[in-house]
Amino acid sequence: MLAERPSTVTGPEIYFGENNIKVGLNPCSPQHMYIFATIAMPGNPRIADEDLPSKMREILAQFGGHMGMARDSIGPDSSINYRPLHAMLKQPPWHVGRIGLIGDAVHATTPHLASGAGLAIEDGLILGDMLSEGFDVEDTWTRFEARRWDRARLVVENSLMIARIEQEGNADEEIQRLMGESSHALAKPY
């Protein structure tokens, strides 16, 4: 959800609440911030668009501060995107002949490591560099997939583990360990 950004919001904020609810905000311009909430919704129930503002206010009811301010600003015209989180990791090959896929088409992830877009950008940069070397295109795709597999798998699998742990609750140390290990691995050259 996009909301007005108070001047006191200077960086991202994440909060955990009752029933394993995770909410956060992230400035995306000097005037606006993005608000998110992750909560288990068994059965992925359909919520009518006109009911989304009241549902979001209900989810944010237990929070004060900036989240409370965001909650109080939700109105009937608020743009709220409600959808389940999905992830997918396709085993190579990611190509047929000279045609291939990169990014979310082969390794879509949940946002728990904030690395999905980075992986996709890396894919494009690396593939471009490898193709510029002048080797056979199909062979380049095979080498590219081998080069990217472990990194993509790390992000998708660890993001899903963090999501599961958050929904189960009370495992901050395990989440910190996974985030630390993932960050350390992702800081290495790709």
Structure overview:
This protein is of the alpha+beta class. The two termini are 33 Å apart. 44% of the residues lie in helices and 14% in strands. It is elongated and about 60 Å long. Helix 4 packs antiparallel against helix 5 and helix 5 packs antiparallel against helix 6. The strands form two sheets. It has a four-stranded antiparallel β-sheet. It has a two-stranded antiparallel ribbon with strand order 6-7. It has two domains: 72 residues, no CATH class; 99 residues, FAD/NAD(P)-binding domain (3-Layer(bba) Sandwich). It has six helices and seven strands, in the order E-E-E-E-H-H-E-E-E-H-H-H-H. The mean pLDDT is 94.
Features:
FAD/NAD(P)-binding domain; 2 domains; alpha+beta; 4-stranded antiparallel sheet
Element layout with pairings:
Blueprint: E1 2-4, E2 13-16, E3 22-27, E4 32-38, H1 52-59, H2 65-73, E5 88-89, E6 95-96, E7 99-100, H3 104-107, H4 116-131, H5 137-168, H6 172-186
Antiparallel strand pairs: 1-4, 2-3, 3-4, 6-7
Global structural class: alpha+beta
Write the CATH architecture name of the largest domain: 3-Layer(bba) Sandwich
Average pLDDT confidence is: 94
Number of helices: 6
Largest sheet: 4 strands, antiparallel
Task: Give the N-to-C terminal Cα separation.
Answer: 33 Å
* Rg from alpha-carbon coordinates: 20 Å
Strand order of the largest sheet: 1-4-3-2
Q: What is the ordering of alpha helices and beta strands? A: EEEEHHEEEHHHH
Helix content: 40-55%
Low-confidence stretches: none
CATH fold-type name of the largest domain: FAD/NAD(P)-binding domain
